[in-house]
TrEMBL record:
Keywords: 4Fe-4S, DNA damage, DNA repair, Hydrolase, Iron, Iron-sulfur, Metal-binding. It comes from Komagataeibacter intermedius NRIC 0521. Residues 38-198 form the Uracil-DNA glycosylase-like domain. Belongs to the uracil-DNA glycosylase (UDG) superfamily. Type 4 (UDGa) family. The keyword Cell inner membrane does not apply. The chain holds residues 199 to 403 of 407 of the full protein. This is Type-4 uracil-DNA glycosylase.
Amino acid sequence: PLVTDLDIPRITALPAVALAARTCRICPMARRATQTVFGEGRSDARMMFVGEQPGDREDIAGRPFVGPAGQLFDRALLDAGIERDDAYVTNTVKHFKFRPRGTRRIHEKAGPEEIAACAPWLAAERRIIRPHVLVMLGATAASALLGRHVTIGRERSRAITLEDGTTGVVTVHPSFLLRVPDEDARTREYARFVSDLRLAADLRT
Ligand code: URA
């Protein structure tokens, strides 16, 4: 039987949630994508990172943050002294959204409906993991988790308390760093990103 959003709050173990998400057809994106890209990491992780949505590479691999943005993210985690294996890494939306063009798949931004449809999965991850610090990578994650429109520049780099008492930190999305054209600016932005990750690591205890 297909999972519905009413079933999700009743699932209590992380592997069972991930398994149920594999057959999710709550939104139409699921029919086109290769597979669900669920979060991964420890269920007792103190830090949880939330991105936007899987890209082409993640869709094929079935794992979050393994493409170009993921490689940059890995390097920044290393520079911030954070072990990815100790954390939990997920996305706001669990399917790759794209438009076919010939043999290519053109990335499309997930909209409010897809974010809302996928919200019970993110809520389940938060409920089970109960991270000490929740890092929101980019405006999509921050807006979805804070429940309001978020401007990164105004809200990044400090501790924010979420409605359930969880400590949150807003920062840029790693793919933003890949798009900064000027090299000096990119170096500066990268350093700021690493510093946000360090702040989050300091808040995890
Ligand atoms: N960008 C994201 O937001 N998430 C991924 O998993 C990969 C790229």
